[in-house]
């Protein structure tokens, strides 16, 4: 696939990735949601998990299909993951606590599912901040790769946050589905890395 075709694919993915956010904005503005806070919090959190799964799936899909152009979509998809996580966090800080940071921090400490979600969000910030080519050059390839391995911590924390949030409702079906998908994707990446290191180096 040439660069022009990849550009069109990126534009289509960009528009599609904004549709869930547009639906949240429209539903809130039009009064379609009976509980706008719950709708925004639930929708943005789940879409952050969707984009997390898609981001983790890019490398396995590229290696299985040979579609190397998929790598050019990964950064944008990862930034959309951060965007929806930011909307999720903003809904919590704004609508739940009206930007009262001390009250928010007290709530974070008091409720474990909020604590692990908050840690996952904080760990996402350096990944989003170092997503530009300039930051990659400044950090160097190896340090940048080590930093972005935080995704191996962020993914389980996100699933734990989702699981504990659903625990009070005894609704574990979706956390199990998300957890299984992410566990498989992470296991595949670990297996591939171990397999690559075990292969003899050819001159």
UniProtKB/TrEMBL annotation:
Superkingdom of origin organism: Bacteria
Ranges where the Ferric oxidoreductase domain occurs: 45-157
Chief location: membrane
UniProt record similarity statement: Belongs to the MsrQ family.
Cofactor(s) needed: heme b; FMN
Protein name: Protein-methionine-sulfoxide reductase heme-binding subunit MsrQ
Lineage start: Bacteria, Pseudomonadati, Pseudomonadota, Betaproteobacteria, Burkholderiales
Entry membrane topology: Multi-pass membrane protein
Pfam family membership, one: Ferric_reduct
Residue spans crossing the bilayer: 7-27, 47-64, 76-95, 115-134, 146-164, 176-194
Cell compartments where the protein resides: Cell membrane; Membrane
Keywords: Cell membrane, Electron transport, Flavoprotein, FMN, Heme, Iron, Membrane, Metal-binding, Transmembrane, Transmembrane helix, Transport
The protein's assembly and partners: Heterodimer of a catalytic subunit (MsrP) and a heme-binding subunit (MsrQ).
Any GO BP: protein repair
Co-factor remark: Binds 1 heme b (iron(II)-protoporphyrin IX) group per subunit. Binds 1 FMN per subunit.
Stated role: Part of the MsrPQ system that repairs oxidized periplasmic proteins containing methionine sulfoxide residues (Met-O), using respiratory chain electrons. Thus protects these proteins from oxidative-stress damage caused by reactive species of oxygen and chlorine generated by the host defense mechanisms. MsrPQ is essential for the maintenance of envelope integrity under bleach stress, rescuing a wide series of structurally unrelated periplasmic proteins from methionine oxidation.
GO cellular component: plasma membrane
Gene Ontology MF, one: oxidoreductase activity, acting on diphenols and related substances as donors
HAMAP family according to UniProt: MsrQ
């Amino acid at each position: 696939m040439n660069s022009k075709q990849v550009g069109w694919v990126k534009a289509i993915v960009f528009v599609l990735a904004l549709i869930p956010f547009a639906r949240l904005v429209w539903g809130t503005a039009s009064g379609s949601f009976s509980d706008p806070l719950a709708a925004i919090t639930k929708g943005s959190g789940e879409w952050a998990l969707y984009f997390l799964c898609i981001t983790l799936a890019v490398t396995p899909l590229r290696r299985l299909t040979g579609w190397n152009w998929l790598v050019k979509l990964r950064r944008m998809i990862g930034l959309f993951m951060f965007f929806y996580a930011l909307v999720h966090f903003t809904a919590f800080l704004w609508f739940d606590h009206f930007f009262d940071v001390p009250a928010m921090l007290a709530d974070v400490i008091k409720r474990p599912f909020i604590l692990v979600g908050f840690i996952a969000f904080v760990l996402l910030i350096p990944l989003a901040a170092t997503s530009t080519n300039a930051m990659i050059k400044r950090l160097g390839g190896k340090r940048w790769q080590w930093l972005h391995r935080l995704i191996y911590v962020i993914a389980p924390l996100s699933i734990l946050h989702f699981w504990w949030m659903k625990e009070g409702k005894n609704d574990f079906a979706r956390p199990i589905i998300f957890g299984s998908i992410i566990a498989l994707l992470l296991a595949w990446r670990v297996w591939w890395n171990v397999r690559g290191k075990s292969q003899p180096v050819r001159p």
